[in-house]
Structure formats: structure tokens, C-alpha cells
Amino acid sequence: MTEADGLRQRRPLRPQVVTDDNRTPEAKGGSSFSGRVFRATFLMLAAFLTIPLLGALVLLDSPIDPEPLSFKEPPLFLGVLQPNTKLQQAEKLFENQLVGPESIANIGDVMFTGTADGRVVKLENGEVETVARFGSGLCSEVKLLLSSETPIEGRKMSFLNDLTVTRDGRKVYFTDSSSKWQRRDYLFLLMEGTDDGRLLEYDTQTKEVKVLLDHLRFPNGVQLSPAEDFVLVAESAMVRIRRFYVSGLMKGGADVFVENLPGFPDNIRASSSGGYWVSMAAIRANPGFSMLDFLSERPFLKKVIFKLFSQETVMKFVPRYSLVLELSDSGAFQRSLHDPEGQVVTYVSEAHEHNGHLYLGSFRAPYLCRLRL
């Protein structure tokens, strides 16, 4: 053996690179078969999931029939609207003793609220006392002023919402949010934007009921002005507050008090500065993304969403951002109070000022909140 032959024998073997070209026919055939099985399985699963979904979209009826609505770009959250955490400084009252205490009123220092389970309760000395219960009889001497079964100008009242009373007790101004939807369907009403809401007047002496404003889209909170010359009504689905004049030279006239609000307004209440507190449980973030603004011009998407999901499920996608805005007597933004995560004040429905405190109602929370001003 020569030296060259010995070197050739000792040369290490190079690793063999296996490619599709040098695989055995059996291996290539097995890989191709496995790929076909995988693709077939994937397509079957996709069809299994897609066909029922398409069937649901075609066959299921949507509970709402929305129209496209157009909003201006929301106001920037700067200056007066600069986000803060002031509402998180509020304390919780009567926790787990109330269910959705949405609105608040005082007679002297005694406080009353209405709750989502159909009760009117008195809050005094740390105790909760049921005064009346709707839907199952009355718990004390309560006088029926007007039945919701009574048609007003040919239309029933399905969603009686808020009211405000003149100081002499003669006139009651109230909202009927819809003749189609009830309170439990408030999200359907908001998303559909039905224009069947009304502002009405009830005369406690003559027992007459008048329609003051019609074709409102989710009329909500109402509040008399300090001089009782006009009534404000929150038109939630249009993110604005309307004004109707009930006395003076402008009597019978109406205009927009403030438009393009930073959120969807609920109740309106007087502030000690001569202006008004407006509560909002859903905001129109700017900068940011507002789902309700996005959907407002896309009625088809609204229909699809409510074909597939319940109101409760959809609510889980709405950020828990509570905002209370103080307006001047002319509608200018004066200050804002925020709870960006809804940690303390959640689903805020009303801001009621009393003795240097702001009492905060909610249509879902199991408590009231109180914030020192």
C-alpha cells in the first residue's frame, strides 16, 4: 500500500445530505400522502366551522334594524377633558345592598334611589328601606299618576326613563326612550338608534299629557333649568343634549344645547355653580378608538354582531370608562372627572350634588358612590 492509498483510506466520510431528489420512492410517497391527509383534514375543519357561521348569518334574524348615523370627530381629551383619576377617590356606599341604583333624589337629608330590581328605596342613617316595588304591588302609599299602558297620541310608552318636576309640583317633564324597546334592551336601542323616543309633559292638575319633542334617538336624562324656562334632554344615541323652552319668549321652541359630547350622555342634574352635571358610562376616546363611533356608519356590522352575540356579551367589549362632565349654564365644558378603568365608579348613570358631595349612581353596580367636591 502506498502512502497515498493510506491517506485515501483514512479520509473521513462526508455527511450525506438527504434531499427530496435522493429519497427513496417509498419516503416521497409517504410524505405526499401525509400532506394530502393534513390538507384534507384542515379543509374539513374549516368547512365544519364556516358553514354553520354562514348559515347563521343568512338564516338568523337580527334583533335590530339600524340606520347609519354620522358623528363628528370626538373632541380631544385635552385641557378640560384631560384624563384623570378623580372618580377613583370616591367611596362606596351600601355595597351589595343595592342593585343598579341609577338615579338619586333628596328630600331634605333623606336620600332615595331607584334600583334595577324594580324598587324605590330610602337611604337614611345607614339603612336601606324599600318604599315601593314595581311589578309586584306597592309597599306603601303610592299614588299612580300615569300608567304606561295608556297610549299617548296613539303610541304606547315602553321605556319610561327620567323625569324632572317644577318647584310647585304641577308639571312633570319626562322621557319615553322608545315605544319599541324596554329598559332591559337599552343596548339594542343605543345600537339601533331608533327615532321613536319622546319628551313629554304631564300636568298634575288637569291630568293631561303632551308630547313636546318627538323622533328622538334614545332620549334619556332630563333636567329643568334653574329658572324653569327650559328643559334639557340627553339624546344618547346622538351624543348631544337638546333644549326645549317651556316658558318665556322662546316657549315651544327647541334647539341643541350642546353637541358632539365626549361620551354617550345619561342623566343630567343641576350643579351648584349654576350649570349641569352629565354622566357618561361609555366614552368616545380621542386619541383612541371608539367602537360605537366605528359601528355608527356600519349598520350591517351591527346586525351581524347581534345575530351572533347577546347584549351581555357585547357589553364585555365596551371599555369600563366612567366620565362625569360639568357644563356651564351655556353648555361649555367646565371640568371633567374620570375613572379610566371603572375601578370604583363603574357604569356611571348620574351625578347628584348634595351638601358638598357628588353622589354617583350606576345602572349596574351594586352600590352608590360618594365623592367629596
What topology does this entry show?
Elements lengths: L2 H8 L14 H35 L31 E3 L9 E5 L2 E5 L4 E6 L2 E7 L26 E6 L5 E6 L9 H7 L4 E7 L5 E8 L2 E6 L5 E6 L4 E6 L8 E5 L4 E8 L5 E8 L7 H6 L2 H10 L2 H5 L6 E6 L5 E7 L8 E7 L2 E6 L5 E5 L1
Please provide a written account of the structure:
The protein is of the alpha+beta class. The chain contains 6 helices and 20 strands. The strands form 5 sheets. A 4-stranded antiparallel β-sheet has the order 1-20-19-18, with no helix packed on it. The protein has a 4-stranded antiparallel β-sheet with strand order 2-3-4-5, with no helix packed on it. A 4-stranded antiparallel β-sheet has the order 6-7-8-9, with no helix packed on it. The chain is globular. Mean pLDDT is 88; it is low at 17-28.
Key words describing this protein structure:
single chain; 373 residues; alpha+beta; four-stranded antiparallel beta sheet; 19% helix
Give a quick precis of the structure.
The protein is built from 6 helices and 20 strands. It has 373 residues and is α+β, with helices and mostly antiparallel strands.
Strand content: 25-35%
Flag low-confidence runs.
17-28
Average pLDDT, rounded to a whole number, is 88
Oligomer: single chain
H/E topology pattern: HHEEEEEEEHEEEEEEEEHHHEEEEE
Radius of gyration: 31 Å
Largest sheet: 4 strands, antiparallel
Sum up the overall morphology in one term: globular
- The residue fraction in helices comes out at 10-25%
Widest sheet: strand ordering: 1-20-19-18
Number of helices: 6
Number of strands: 20
Main structural class:
alpha+beta
Straight-line distance between termini: 105 Å
